[in-house]
Write a structure and sequence with these properties.
The structure is a single chain. The chain is mostly beta strands. The protein is about 0% helix and about 50% strand. The strands form 2 sheets. Strands 2, 4, 5, 6, 9, 10 and 11 form a 7-stranded mixed beta sheet that branches. Strands 1-3-8-7 form a 4-stranded antiparallel beta sheet, with no helix packed on it. A hairpin with a 6-residue loop joins strand 4 and strand 5.
Length: about 130
């Protein structure tokens, strides 16, 4: 069992920056790949970014590439998503999720993330 708790959401103006964090507890955090998902009202949940268990490999959706950076600190059981140059269309509930890491090519597979946080709201005003 892995418990995940997000923090750091809030309201920011377009062009601004925000960092959301995800604190993990429970089983060996460094065995798990971590994903950041977001869901806006009326839209499907999408995988925004993911990072491998040791932090070597990452994945970014095209919509955030060059603006968002995912990182992790396994000593602190933390995963971060630094979001720069935010746009109103980035407004969503951001959730972190975990799955046992099975290789770089599996990072963007979305159906097998096992553990989920409750989410944190990010609102970007125009």
């Amino acid at each position: 069992q892995v418990q995940l708790v997000e923090s750091g959401g809030g309201l920011v103006q377009a062009g601004g920056s925000l960092r959301v964090s995800c604190a993990g507890s429970g089983r060996t955090f460094s065995d798990y790949a971590m994903g950041w998902f977001r869901q806006a009202p009326g839209k499907e949940r999408e995988l925004v970014s993911a990072i491998s268990a040791k932090g070597v490999n990452t994945y970014y959706a095209d919509s955030v590439k060059g603006r968002f950076t995912v990182s992790r600190d396994n000593n602190k059981n933390m995963v971060y998503l630094q979001m720069n140059s935010l746009k109103p269309e980035d407004t969503a509930v951001y959730s972190c999720a975990a799955k046992l890491y099975r290789g770089r090519s599996t990072l963007q597979i979305v159906d097998d993330y096992t553990y989920w946080g409750q989410g944190t709201q990010v609102t970007v005003s125009s």
